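User: What would this chain look like folded?
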Amino acid sequence: MSKQKDSRRAFIQKAVASSLGIISAPALINASDSNPNNKNEDKAIEPIWRNKQQGMHYRMLGRTGMMVSELGMGTFPYHTEESYPILDASIERGINYFDSAFAYGQGKVEENLGNYFKQSGNREKVFLTTKLSAYGKGKYLRKIFESLAPGEQEKLQKQADELLAERMVLRPGYHFNYFNGQEQQLKSAYLWHVVLQKYGMKKEWKQEIRKHAYQLIEGSLKRLQTDYIDVLFCPHGAAGPELKDEILEELLFEFKQKGLIRASALSFHNDVSGNLDAAIDLGYYDVAMFAYNIANHAALDASMYKAKQSGMGLIAMKVSRLYVMDNKPDWIVGKINSTIPDEKLSVFAKSYLWALQNPNLSCCVSQMETVEKLDDNLQAVGQTRT
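Assistant: Here's the prediction, encoded as structure tokens.
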């Protein structure tokens, strides 16, 4: 790594330690952060500004201090240089939150963004995020499961199905399948949880998982051509019934101390209120990103208030996804149109306008593949509807 990058990473390391008060072990930090009476006041946090443009509106991303644009860029389809004009346009209009992941094209999106930032010089104009998409114990637990006799496999699968039913995670109106394979991903996560509960974690896994996590983040840094990530998501798409992970807690703390990341985060599409409540209780996540829309909000609003009070920054995803799904609820379009009866706005702009009425939310991530879609969605920012 160059001396310039070393210097930049040292600066980030110092800044993160200062802003988070990192002066002792993670357990001591968690004891403070997880205290429900330890309410975070935005006015006590020094705001961090990037790419502030007239016409855009910004909100503080919880205790990170990052002032993020109300609309953020979801980069899932940006595999080639053809995406550069939309990236340029988004920055020109004041967007400063870019969401990416290794899983998007198996690194192709990260690589494309890295090339874009190198060519444009726009890296320091945005808060850049990525996700450790392949982190976890799943592959080890799968090996254990596959080594078992059919009778034992059937028994464990039944226990997982019963646990899933008991927690009512798949109840209508609470759960939506936003992508192919989502429900199977959820069922697999519950199965691996049951396997772990019975057979435990082998000692050799810890070092292997730690080594793999460092390989993942260094790979993302290399592809993105940056020496630090503003917000790192792990897990990416939490699906199981248990979030607590001592290995991951240690890793996120180390990544911050080394200046590799500024903030720790997690994302989830499933069991949205259950996962958000669990993340609040853990205390070591600075940011949460989750599926939030006019269909599922009733289950989330109370948890979002509690999360905001604890100091977490909240990012909404899948805000307008329901309107383009083949299996979308028949009533969903009627609900958004009756809630916001503005014929000048598209159903997509209405969905972001609706979400941004929640003051506990920091940002909505949107996948916008053309400048026209960008400008359409941007009609939602900075508006208050009663």
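The first helix runs from residue 3 to 20. If you want, I can go into more detail on any region.
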